[in-house]
Design a protein that fits this description.
single chain, 74 residues, mainly alpha
Amino acid sequence: MCRSIKTLRTGPVPASDEEITAAALQFVRKVSGYRKPSAANEEAFDHAVNEVAAATKALLEAVALTHPQARRAS
């Protein structure tokens, strides 16, 4: 699932907010089946993207220092 989403934690530079949001958007599109939701579903879709992006950012901040490439960049 979501094969087009790249791994965000392996690079020497932390993932940008734009990369995190793009990955969240891809995930929500895949899960919901919507490329672009209807007006009736747009608010829920956008909320889901924001929630997934926030959870992803928190995860990356929590695990960043344990990855070998992240430790080398420090």
